[in-house]
């Protein structure tokens, strides 16, 4: 899979992308992540990528030209190098559809995606109408830019690409994979003074019984903490 991220703050991605699971997924060839500095595409002599809103009001708007040229450059590069086109051009915005595990799973099956990070007050609406295929928010709160949202989405997408997690079952066992919260988990020691004992069933050695207990607990926790997840099905 290939993910191209367009941002006015490309430095925000360097640390996190090279760490942990995402870093390994790139080194092992499961995903290629490319960060593009939107400012490299502006034709403005002062390198500006934003301007005042028509009609007045506060805040600046990201202009069409750098975004359109950047996306067009990425599209023609992908076409000439691999004969492929982008499956999605995603715009991060607090008014987009709320990101969830199902979206991460679906996006992880795509071959090439662009994520455009929103900034300032947002982008010229004509870009949304003409070039964006999906608008995604990561929750009902406002961030100062789409970079963290793009990072969150990239993490969630990359870790479910088949093969990325060592144990092939691991992603399937995740919280939310069946619209269920994860069951409680424990590690050694089986008894810790002042904290009590691990549930006995986990020590019984019968995988089928343990799995039944885990599903039961997952259902109980979901019902208690996130009943909305059960209603969605
Ligand atoms: Cl995608 N962008 C911004 N700026 N704020 C957000 C968001 C995105 N999702 C939630 N809040």
Structure characterization notes:
This protein starts with a strand and ends with a helix. It folds into 2 domains: 2-158, Alpha/beta knot (3-Layer(aba) Sandwich), CATH 3.40.1280; 175-233, Trp Operon Repressor, Chain A. It has a 5-stranded parallel beta sheet with strand order 2-1-6-5-7, with helices on both faces. A two-stranded antiparallel ribbon has the order 3-4. By secondary structure, it is α/β, with parallel strands linked by helices. The longest helix has 19 residues, at 64-82. Helix 1 (11-17) packs parallel to helix 6 (147-159) and helix 4 (101-107) packs across helix 6. 36% of the residues lie in helices and 18% in strands. The protein is elongated and about 70 Å long. The protein has helices spanning 11-17, 20-27, 64-82, 101-107, 125-130, 147-159, 207-225, 227-231, and strands at residues 2-7, 32-37, 50-51, 61-62, 88-98, 112-117, 134-137, 191-192, 196-197. The protein is built from 8 helices and 9 strands. The relative contact order is 0.14.
């Amino acid at each position: 899979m290939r993910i191209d991220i367009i941002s006015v703050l490309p430095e925000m991605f360097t640390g996190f992308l090279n760490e942990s699971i995402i870093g390994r997924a790139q080194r092992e060839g499961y995903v290629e992540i490319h960060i593009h500095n939107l400012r490299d595409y502006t034709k403005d002599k002062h390198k500006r990528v934003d301007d005042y809103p028509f009609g007045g009001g506060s805040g600046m708007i990201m202009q069409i030209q750098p975004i359109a040229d950047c996306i067009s450059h990425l599209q023609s590069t992908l076409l000439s190098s691999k004969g492929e086109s982008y499956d999605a051009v995603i715009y991060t915005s607090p008014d987009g559809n709320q990101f969830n595990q199902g979206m991460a799973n679906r996006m992880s099956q795509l071959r090439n995606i662009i994520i455009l990070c929103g900034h300032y007050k947002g982008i010229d609406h004509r870009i949304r109408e003409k070039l964006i295929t999906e608008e995604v928010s990561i929750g009902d709160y406002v961030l100062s830019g789409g970079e963290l949202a793009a990072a969150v989405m990239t993490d969630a997408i990359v870790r479910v690409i088949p093969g990325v997690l060592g144990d092939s079952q691991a992603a399937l066992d995740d919280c939310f994979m069946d619209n269920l919260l994860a069951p409680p988990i424990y590690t050694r020691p089986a008894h810790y003074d002042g904290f009590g004992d691990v549930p006995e069933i986990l020590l019984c050695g019968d995988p089928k019984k343990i799995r039944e207990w885990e599903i039961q607990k997952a259902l109980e926790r979901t019902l208690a903490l996130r009943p909305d997840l059960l209603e969605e099905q």
